[in-house]
Design the sequence.
């Protein structure tokens, strides 16, 4: 039996409730992280493999225990090459340097503006070089998300095709080589799902808001942790009032209980399969729709989304193509929602080649369509919680229970933190006391000699 440790905030088989996921931050700040973890689990979980999440713990002091317990460390990442992830990147580098087991990075990307100036470099270049070098000491090749990230690593001195290769987002391979987008008849009464990002340009956010009005039978599917708290508890607002993004309970989407925050991938995909269309500015919100077979329109806002939209040929419209006059009903008439199907087989084959180069066991080793999928068999025995609905759709009793559950866990977390800090203080005090004794003895000896 091979034991694999994987970077993930939650296992696809865990059934934490909303309050637990909020306090633990199981989604790593964004529930989209669950989608690519789901895919990697499903692909790598064979009958001879056990996969355990690290729950986002990064501690170089764990190296010895990891070496003893696991045969391999799998690290799927999103746009980890960014400034605010540098502290975590440094910890990973320190940890990986202490590991003796293989370490494979299945997907990583650069966060940069839509038109990145790669030649000018980034403040985190040296940290990325150190991380990639450490990983390559423990694996044959790194998988990156797109051409922009590949060019970035090449500029840092790493060789494309030898040190790194473009594999896209593992989420797209959740169900293998075949991808089929349903034919739907999109009308003003169609159920549509909407996702958005406050980081998008104003005119894109305005377009999304107009489109929600154009298709009133919509459901807004947020992804941020703070939106999870807003959906679950009704407060606090995630930002100052805005007329082009749902930021508080005062927004019609929350008031009318038209918001759903998903706690797991299966219920998310099932919900998306009921929709005629998914659209918006969230990468994994639309990738989830795509692998669910639902027509999807992505509105890329930066380099990381652009490189994935181009690599997977996700149906997309760039921000500069949207004007104040753009109507979603007219736009969809010009789009080919089957575009992602055309590159799926080629991209999937290259992804499998990458896994093979890193000597990773997977369910596609013998057949493109495996006879058994251990992940699916185990998943069928798991009872998943439904998505979180807004407090506007709850009774006062249910709302009170939500707050009580959240506060109880928050308080328990604070108490544990205080307890741990007290232990550290006590340890340091003991160390200081021992040092003080040694200094006193040394001083006494020196004086006695004199």
Sequence:
């Amino acid at each position: 039996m091979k034991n694999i440790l994987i970077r993930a905030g939650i296992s696809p088989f865990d059934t934490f409730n909303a309050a637990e996921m909020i306090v633990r931050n199981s989604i790593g700040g964004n529930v989209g992280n669950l989608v690519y973890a789901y895919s990697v689990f499903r692909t790598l979980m064979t009958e001879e493999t056990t996969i355990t999440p690290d729950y986002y713990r990064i501690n170089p002091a764990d190296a010895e225990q990891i070496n003893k317990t696991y045969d391999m460390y799998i690290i799927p990442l999103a746009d980890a090459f960014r400034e605010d992830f540098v502290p975590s990147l440094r910890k990973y580098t320190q940890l990986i340097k202490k590991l003796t087991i293989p370490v494979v990075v299945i997907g990583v990307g650069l966060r940069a503006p839509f038109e990145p100036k790669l030649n000018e470099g980034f403040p985190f270049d040296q940290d990325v070089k150190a991380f990639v070098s450490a990983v390559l000491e423990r694996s044959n090749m790194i998988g990156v998300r797109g051409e922009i990230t590949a060019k970035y690593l090449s500029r840092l001195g790493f060789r494309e095709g030898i040190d790194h290769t473009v594999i896209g987002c593992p989420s797209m391979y959740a169900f293998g080589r075949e991808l089929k987008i349903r034919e739907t008849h999109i009308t003003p009464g169609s159920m549509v799902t909407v996702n958005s990002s406050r980081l998008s340009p104003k005119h894109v956010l305005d377009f999304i808001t107009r489109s929600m009005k154009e298709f009133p039978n919509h459901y807004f599917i947020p992804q941020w942790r703070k939106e999870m708290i807003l959906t679950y508890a009704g407060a606090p607002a995630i930002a100052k009032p805005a007329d082009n993004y749902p930021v508080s309970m005062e927004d019609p989407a929350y008031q009318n209980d038209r918001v759903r925050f998903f706690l797991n991938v299966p219920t998310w995909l099932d919900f998306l399969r009921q929709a005629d269309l998914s659209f918006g500015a969230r990468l994994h919100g639309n990738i989830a729709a795509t692998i669910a077979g639902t027509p999807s329109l992505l509105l890329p806002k930066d380099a990381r989304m652009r490189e994935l939209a181009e690599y997977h040929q996700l149906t997309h419209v760039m921000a500069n193509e949207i004007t104040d006059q753009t109507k979603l009903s007219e736009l969809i008439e010009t789009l080919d929602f089957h575009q992602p199907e055309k590159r799926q087989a080629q991209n999937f084959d290259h992804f499998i080649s990458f896994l093979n180069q890193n000597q990773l066991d997977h369910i596609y080793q013998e057949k493109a369509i495996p006879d058994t999928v251990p992940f699916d068999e185990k998943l069928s025995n798991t009872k998943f919680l439904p998505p979180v609905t807004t407090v506007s759709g709850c009774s006062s009793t249910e709302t009170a229970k939500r707050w009580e559950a959240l506060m109880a866990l928050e308080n328990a977390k604070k108490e544990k933190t205080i307890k741990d800090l007290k232990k550290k203080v006590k340890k340091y005090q003991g160390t200081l006391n021992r040092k003080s004794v040694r200094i006193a003895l040394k001083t006494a000896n020196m004086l006695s000699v004199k």
About this structure: The chain has two domains: 2-176+344-385, 192-341. The CA atoms of residues 177 and 345 lie 5 Å apart.
